Amino acid sequence: MSSTILGAAAPGRSRAKQKELGHRIRVKMAAIAAFLFLAAIAIYGADYYILPLDQRPYSAKHELLRPSGTIGLKLGIFGTVLFFIIFLYALRKVIPWLGRMGTARHWMDFHVIAGMSAPIVIAFHASFKFQGIAGVAFWIMLAVALSGIVGRYLYAQIPRSLNAAEMSLGELHDNERMLAEFLLVQSVFTEEQLRKALKAPSPERASRVGALAAIAQMLVFDLAMPFRMAKLRRLGGGSAGLRSLGGLFSSGNREVEDIVGIVRQKAALTKRVLFLDQTQRVFHLWHVIHRPFSYAFALLAILHIVVVMGLGFGGMGMH
Length: 319
What we know:
Layout: H1 3-8, H2 13-49, H3 62-65, H4 70-91, H5 96-99, H6 104-125, H7 132-157, H8 169-184, H9 191-197, H10 203-208, H11 211-235, H12 254-311
Helix pairs in contact: 2-6, 4-6, 6-7, 7-12, 8-12, 9-11, 11-12
């Protein structure tokens, strides 16, 4: 397949790819920074956190890591900052200047990173003692974080146009057909090889499954996709040695990789078309569940902060 044909497959693709690459780099940097920060706290405080509660006051790190300690208090403040970052995603819909900064999907990525990091930061702040209002707030926050991961996955399954509006089913079918047409003119893979790589449930079968079963099938489909692409690379004569781990990574053959990229894109579109209705229904249901938990956590967190400030940080010595 010529590069001209591939270039025609997606007008404006290079510019969109550059913007997306920049966003992915920023997301990866944020995720790595969060991981390193949490890992550093875990390693430094491991010998303190594993101590029984009655022995912690005798630890040399107690004055640092207890909730009102030098580090513990800062972790609480940082957790609060993360808490506000999490809610910026919702606020961008009502604050115009926030809404103009990036797309909803980009905001969602940082929303998820903050949402996953915040419960761990708060756990370190509380030195893993979850009692009273703070304890209830933590468990609700953990539930919100876990449901947020599910929500991010569902959000990714609803294809969106460049202006972040949901695509119609007709547009999805058009995109899918366009990719199928480009696959027909390539000469690297046989039709049978491509059919196996693109294997998906029939529309009739997909329409009969319930919403939760549809999500389970989508997860299985996504988990199997890297192995399907690896097999396709091997069939295309790509490197199957140690460098590519049997096709799990790039083969080094540009023509093969271009086709593999289009096959992966078409497979993803096929999956989304098949389960679009169930995904949208589950996503709307997820909003109904996720938002009340988020607001409940916000109220409890604010109440905890007010109580702590009312008592004064010195009154936290009992922690």
